[in-house]
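Example 9 (inverse folding). The structure is encoded as follows.
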């Protein structure tokens, strides 16, 4: 008598490569069904929750998220096992995987539309230059030399106040290629180890200078780094990497990986408008884009630039001086301070509401590209005010929002 055939359920399991992951939390934030979680060691995917919708794939700045293993469903890697990994397990031999995948029923073949599930665009602007990503990795990092480290915020602001001590740090790559675009970021590997003896993981920093260098024609770039002296709950905590960076001296060397980021990029067509909304060090990519436009202005770039920039006080606003010196016909700058003594709290959303008619003009224009960067909490408030402005001016927000995402015209990066 023949034995009954027991069907083997096969899964194309979604995994995150711990060797490349820079623990930026983007995937966990993007996942619409909470299939991604983390501990102090790794970011991992719950095999029983992930439906393969792919919403997390393109926002991942390093590509660590795009890893798959064909496994028997009953033998899927659990999250407790994934938390212990220093590297991904080897793939199954090809023949075995191929045989398995013939039987695979993979949820990604469903009809989930990732654009509909996330808040920002999963694609870059159509005219963005093609970025290089992951040229240098944990296994083959690059050494850069510090050629400048200046405190940007007013010395009168105490170092211990959150957001008060922000530095402009210039790194030089000598003769080693490190091509970057505005909106991209790099990873810094701080020296030393964690309490359990593992090397510190990389921290990510947005590039604050244009593609042709902080100093045009030089192989260098700038970062805007806030010294972290408190955790998110306000308890005293000296951030490992930010303190290391802020204390660097000219001539010191740092270990760099990257570049990262393939979607939060600026349009290259000269009549595109940039609507930039940021808080604190979220100004870094806006500075890069603004400066690139300023350099191109002579060559006929005509698009408008509108900036909403929030900080606690004027003293804590990085680049306050240079920003306020930019010509009014080049950039329409709107500042909002939430802790100016004797004045009512004012946030970027309030400044946007005050300029609602002009923001609406930009929203109506197909050449407008929107960038939001800064504190994690700002995303919801900014999307809410964009919705209000759109609806007050007869622009249906749900459809406009979907179009902005699909056309790579709404980019969000908060941390
Ligand atoms: P850790 O040692 O990692 O953390 C110390 C404590 O501080 C922890 O309790 C932690 O929860 C808390 N903490 C971590 N980050 C912050 C924070 N930002 N504010 C308050 N508390 C915090 N930072 C910049 O300064 N400039 C940038 O341009 C920049 N760009 C980024 C771009 C992206 C896409 C991402 C994901 C992050 C970016 N960051 C930027 C944040 C940066 O990567 C680090 O998280 C930050 O410098 C803190 O690292 P740390 O090693 O000093 O602190």
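The amino acid assigned to each position is listed next.
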């Amino acid at each position: 008598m023949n034995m009954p055939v027991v069907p083997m359920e096969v899964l194309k399991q979604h995994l995150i490569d711990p060797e490349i992951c820079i623990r930026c939390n983007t995937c966990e934030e993007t996942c619409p069904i909470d299939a991604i979680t983390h501990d102090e060691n790794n970011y991992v995917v719950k095999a029983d929750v992930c439906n393969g919708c792919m919403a997390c794939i393109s926002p991942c700045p390093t590509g660590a998220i795009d890893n798959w293993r064909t496994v028997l469903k009953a033998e899927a890697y659990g999250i407790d096992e994934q938390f212990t990994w220093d590297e991904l397990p080897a793939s199954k031999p090809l023949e075995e995987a191929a045989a398995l995948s013939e039987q695979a029923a993979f949820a990604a073949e469903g009809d989930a539309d990732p654009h509909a599930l996330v808040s920002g665009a999963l694609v870059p602007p159509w005219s963005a230059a093609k970025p290089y990503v992951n040229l240098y990795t944990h296994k083959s990092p690059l050494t850069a030399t510090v050629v400048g480290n200046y405190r940007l915020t007013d010395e009168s602001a105490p170092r211990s106040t959150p957001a008060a001590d922000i530095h402009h740090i210039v790194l030089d790559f000598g003769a080693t290629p490190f091509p970057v675009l505005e909106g991209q970021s790099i990873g810094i590997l701080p020296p030393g180890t964690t309490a359990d003896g593992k090397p510190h993981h990389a921290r990510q920093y947005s590039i604050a200078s244009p593609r042709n260098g902080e100093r045009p024609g030089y192989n260098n770039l700038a970062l805007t780094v806030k010294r972290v002296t408190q955790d998110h709950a306000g308890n005293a905590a000296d951030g490992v990497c930010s303190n290391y960076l802020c204390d660097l001296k000219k001539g010191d060397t740092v270990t760099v990986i990257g570049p990262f980021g393939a979607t939060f990029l600026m349009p290259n067509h000269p009549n595109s408008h940039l609507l930039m909304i940021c808080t604190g060090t979220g100004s870094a990519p806006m500075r890069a884009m603004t400066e690139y436009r300023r350099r191109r202005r002579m060559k006929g770039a005509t698009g408008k630039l509108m900036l909403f920039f929030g900080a606690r006080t004027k003293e804590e606003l990085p680049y306050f001086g240079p920003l306020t010196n930019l010509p009014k016909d080049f950039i329409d700058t709107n500042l909002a301070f939430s802790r100016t003594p004797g004045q009512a709290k004012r946030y970027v959303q309030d400044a946007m509401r005050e300029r609602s008619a002009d923001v609406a003009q930009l929203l109506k224009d197909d050449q407008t590209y929107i960038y939001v960067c800064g504190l994690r909490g700002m995303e919801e408030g900014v999307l809410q005010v964009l919705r209000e402005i759109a609806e007050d001016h007869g622009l249906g927000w749900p459809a406009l929002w979907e179009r902005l995402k699909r056309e790579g015209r709404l980019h969000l990066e908060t941390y």
